[in-house]
Amino acid sequence: MRFRKIHGAGNDFVLLSDPGSDGPDGGKEWPKEAERLCARRTGVGADGLVISRLISNSPAVLEITCFNADGSIATMCGNALRCSAWAAHRDHGFQQMSLHMAGVVHEAVVSDNSVWVTAEVGAVLPRRLQTVINGRPTWFDSAHTGTEHVVAIVDDVDAIDAVMVGRLVRHHADLAPLGTNVNFVQSAGHQALKIRTYERGVEAETLSCGSGAVAAAVVATMRGLVARRAVTVHNRAGEPLTVRPHDARPNRTHWVGGLVTNTFEGVLA
Ligand SMILES: N[C@@H](CCC[C@H](N)C(=O)O)C(=O)O
């Protein structure tokens, strides 16, 4: 089975395009396959496994399934959608397409050097929980951007032990049983933010997170750090994502865009 090793602004995936209708062991074993392939030492190594299936050429529609590195399903993964759109552009020439993920329809646009997808924003809850970071009580707001996110606005994201605090908050009793992705965000100048994200399902800090960048922009707008227009979100990869409200549905839908890099391709043993 052929695969792509691809990353969206540093968030990396093993991407399988149309792997046959079943997958390993009748399709039931994808979660195990995700764990196996994503293992950094014994597999290909990735934050997630993405399966893309072409549904229709005209209009261009694909079904995308994303498994986190631990085999759990991601109901929304902005970077996996962006990587899938890039691959569909390469394989089928689509520039605009619809991507279905976990029952939600996302728009995608591939331009010269960036790939954009839409994210749907649900409930935004201020002061969802509090914890102490470096001796200072810190609030997390929650924002549902297709998956669970909490966001803390802090002075200096680099001063935080993102894995230690991220893990604590991810497993916070108030957010059980689902848990959450955890974002630390600081102001980084005019319409710009700096972010670090601890990702549920990867159970580690990742280099970028599309739905986390959208959650950061939404919370930072609510908190008055940025205005409701395009925001640059600087991440650990040094490949910023841009988040902007959708023209037709600015309160509900946001675009997230940035680079996609096809690192290598191969054949699974
Ligand atoms: N990196 C992703 C988010 C992936 C989903 C997350 N780990 C979860 O299970 O909630 C993104 O780019 O949005």
UniProtKB/TrEMBL annotation:
Top EC group = isomerase
Q: By its UniProt entry, which InterPro entries does this protein fall under?
A: DAP_epimerase_AS, DAP_epimerase_DapF
Q: Which UniProt keywords apply?
A: Amino-acid biosynthesis, Cytoplasm, Isomerase, Lysine biosynthesis
GO BP annotations listed: lysine biosynthetic process via diaminopimelate
- Identify the pathway: Amino-acid biosynthesis; L-lysine biosynthesis via DAP pathway; DL-2,6-diaminopimelate from LL-2,6-diaminopimelate: step 1/1
> In the Enzyme Commission scheme, what number(s) does this protein have?
5.1.1.7
Among PROSITE patterns, the record links this protein to: DAP_EPIMERASE (PS01326)
Mind naming one GO cellular-component term on file for this protein?
Answer: cytosol
Identify which residues the record assigns to the active site.
C77, C209
Q: Does the keyword Aminoacyl-tRNA synthetase apply?
A: no
Annotated site residues (Could be important to modulate the pK values of the two catalytic cysteine residues) in this chain: H149, E199
Catalyzed reactions per annotation: (2S,6S)-2,6-diaminopimelate = meso-2,6-diaminopimelate
Domain of life of the native organism: Bacteria
Q: Give the UniProt family note.
A: Belongs to the diaminopimelate epimerase family.
Assembly with partners or alone = Homodimer.
Q: List the protein's name.
A: Diaminopimelate epimerase
Q: Which organism is it from?
A: Streptomyces caeruleatus
Q: Which gene encodes it?
A: dapF
